[in-house]
Amino acid sequence: MPQRIGLFGGTFDPPHVGHLVTAVNVRHALRLDVVVLMVANVPWQKERSRRITPAEDRFALVEAAVADVPGLIAGRTEIDRGGASFTADTLVTLGERYPGAELFTIVGDDAAAGFTTWERFEEVASRSSLVVVDRPGVPVELPEKFKWNRVEVPRLEVSSTDLRSRFSDGRPLDYLLTEPVLDVIRDRNLYGSAH
Ligand code: ATP
Ligand code: MG
To answer: How many Å separate Cα 39 from the centre of its chain?
Structure first.
């Protein structure tokens, strides 16, 4: 039974090396038993601005990304729950599934900056310790009333947005995402993949 669990939520459309480098480094720095890459079902803060790849496809991509990485797992709690994905609800589910475990909510610096726009963010902060992933030397501050800590991880300037545009214009994807993820993208013909 895992005692220290990291929750790293995202759209993962698609998952890339920035996500993986972050997850393994936070796991190491905080001695977490597992980090769950939790696939958002409906990312309510994004769904109006662009077309989101179906959740089951994104889950298959994250499964492929973590398959050979010790301590990382793909989470489907938010997909199974359905509807809009709120981290507060996911923490409740994880708390029930792993009684007594200590929970850590992992967010990148951009996500941390918007933390107080999250649904029931106070509950997220009370049910877990917040972990802000930051590039070395550049502090992000969260309000003192939250229990939070900061882990420095070398920042790889990779985003899913940039990867999707690489698929559409044919620029190289090498080293930005892993081969197992690319295989699933090709198999399922995602992102109009000619690659
Ligand atoms: P998009 O470009 O579609 O917004 P993204 O690359 O930002 O995608 P998300 O699924 O939105 O990926 O991000 C999930 C989590 O991963 C967020 O907490 C985000 O801050 C973090 N994250 C995204 N890219 C990186 C990166 N290159 N390094 C570290 N953390 C990242
Ligand atoms: Mg993002």
So the answer is: 7
